[in-house]
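Crash report, auto-generated. Payload:
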Amino acid sequence: MRKSFISEDSDWSFSLIRRYDEEISRIAAAYSLDTYPNQIEVISSEQMMDAYSSVGMPVGYRHWSYGKQLLGIEQRYRRGQMGLAYEIVINSNPCIAYLMEENTMMMQALVLAHAAYGHNSFFKNNYLFRAWTNADAIIDYLIFAKNYIADCEQRYGEVEVEHILDSCHALMNYGVDRYKRPPRLSARDERLRQKEREEYLQSQINHLWRTLPGGGQAHREVVHDRFPAEPQENLLYFIEKNAPLLKPWQREIVRIVRKIAQYFYPQRQTQVMNEGWATFWHYTILNKLYDEGLVNDGFMMEFLQTHTNVVRQPSFDNEYYSGINPYTLGFSMMSDIRRICENPSAEDRCWFPDIAGSEWLSTLDFAMRNFKDESFIAQYLSPRLMREMKLFAVLDDDRKRQLEITAIHNEQGYRQIRSQLAEQYNLGSNEPNIQVYAVNIRGDRSLTLRYTQNRRRPLHQDTSEVLKHLARLWGFTVRLETIDHKDKILKTDECLVENQ
Amino acid sequence: MNQVIDRRLNGRHKNAVNRQRFIRRFKRQIKQAVAKAINERSITNIDSGEQVNIPADDTSEPIFRHGTGGERETILPGNSEYLPGDKIKRPSGANGKGSQASNRGEGEDDFVFRLSREEFLEFFFEDLALPDLIKTQLATNVEQQKVRAGYSRDGVPANINVIRSLKGALARRLALRAPYIRELKSVTEELESLHEDSADETLRERIRCLEESSLQLKNRIRTIPFIDTFDLRYNNRTSIPKPTSQAVMFCLMDVSGSMDEQRKDIAKCFFILLYLFLTRNYERIEVVYIRHHTTAKEVDEEEFFHSRETGGTVVSSALELMHDIICQRYPTNDWNIYAAQASDGDNWNDDSPKCRDLLSENIMPLLQYYAYVEITPDEHQRLWHEYQTVHASCKNFAMQRIDTLTDIYPVFRKLFKKKIS
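Recovered output after restart:
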């Protein structure tokens, strides 16, 4: 039995969007995708550029760097170097997905399936998002942050606030707890507690920096210990709690930047999985629409062309190559898992004995819930996919004159390629490992950080600039020691601050 | 439940503030870029947006990251020839990542973006101000303009609005006649009913009485005036201040044989700059082109810049023509008048004092500003020295020498420097 097509031509209308949404929602439910309610917003391309340049935050505080983003995007868009993103989706409850007015009906349907069901269900169910972000509270919190910063600008001047924000942004990637789970966000509680926290924090700092002898043996022992007792990975947190000279409002701004960094942290860790999941589902759902006779051949041809562009992976020697396309890798892996479940080869049975031949939907669901890019690749990248993508490993050692190919897609290379690719998505090793090591509490109050070198990789020359930002927040001299794996200090960068 | 919301009507420029902040923050660099653009490019197409390049270093936001060096192992797709253990030459990029490195390299060029036309000109004119513009505006604001504003009950006969007045009169007549007509009607009806048996004395008496009142009523109706002073309506006009937002710009140029193409180009740029500058301050601008050799002629733009004459030079002819045109077409209470003269300094010697007198006595009192640029690398001739005496006596007379195209902008700025009060 053939149903009639939902739409025949490429013009969209609100009623058609609702119609497609009903059908897609029905199919998604049949595949038991668990989603937040959707809020689908139709916007113009200018608005899309706006949304794009505020890194997808629907409400953002004001800062010149977003203006810079916008100007850059406008320029590239105008010169045709870049198409606009088809969609932006926000991890909130309800999940906000933007549809661009210029899109065709097919694109709107694709974006619906991709963002409003794919990304949405990922946001709701992936363990990182569940643990680290609170979709119910993020919009409220962003509004709180925007108002608070606007308020500070009124009170203390735009320039002052800009300085603090510049410095915080420089350290934003070091404003996340990588291992500890943060408390849940809530704008109302933030406001209520904020006053309390200001006073408390200030008293804590005063205590730490008290110069009068506290009396008693215990006190003397404490100051002989290194502070902090353990190295601290969250630089912004450390500054918020311990920087001696920051005013309460400045601490609050540090906190806001830190919270936002934390909110985006899971997205940075799950790019491949998140895009792969969404791409897999738009592909599956739209094919299902076609199978049910709800869309016509023209729709499908247009869809396939777009989809193929999205998952295109140029080879390393192609002029368009710019790294591994996360859409390709993610989509291929998701599809590959389904293949392994439904149609395993002998090789798959050997490599993936636990999932080969299992029920694909629940296997895929499990993979989506419990992994991040690094572990997902380490767990599921199959030899067959490595062969398809013709992956190979290159070692660049600056002590040698030539590069060396260390592994290719063959029996000896599979494991190395897989673990190496997983490592490539490990933020912990992609970003330099820099931690707070010590504060000279009794002397010049200088702060010492330690960079633990991995495979002798040095820091970028930007480092001195970042140290200036750090020194601005800390208020005293800041030092960065580069150490090797035997704790030997190789190099010390320093940003001196004169204080009386 | 899912909902679809149309947000297209919401604000489009949420990030406009951030854009402004960016421009404010990099004001110094943008200004440099604008100044550079003006010096280097042809100024003729200045009147559009401008692409601005800022060194990427200035706008970068530093973060902790790895530099080049050490060991790094990368997974790349698309292997078609390599086997494990193969050694390959390090690509010319600093780090051995093939085309990826060069892609990144491109990204680290200047930060490029586009200023809108308004923003560009804003930067361009930032330190400039029209000479005494504010003074002029205050003065010209006294000019009043009459605009229609409905009708009033009093005014001068010339302003009577006939239709409106007659409409009023008609209504008044109808209204005033109505009770008499009603009464007359009843009187007439009674008369008619009584007419037949006129034997009775009392009845006759009654008829006479009725006839009398009928006559009286008719009289009354007749005496209602066709039009009354009460009916008159006058067109009402109120006066509002009329800003003088128009300017006329006179371009005077020597086209005698000694002015070659290159000098004309320089002159042209100077005129265009002045024109642009005026566009910012006046709603409407007219340009009058006067070219001269021994005689002066008003021409259109095309002819002004492109035709070429030979022969001597009599500057005063152009000044006289300009004065005539001002008197005929541009009364000073309606127009702000600017003049710019470009010349190579050549003039018939005896004519120069005449120019001086013409300028200081007849022309300068009419003008907002007169700018004279001499495009010559040679020594000044008599015209320059005569003009210097004009310059000494008139504050709104400026003169400068220009050698090359790149001199224009600084000279222009000098001519129109913000007056420090």
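Post-recovery validation: The CA atoms of residues 272 and 452 of chain A lie 27 Å apart.
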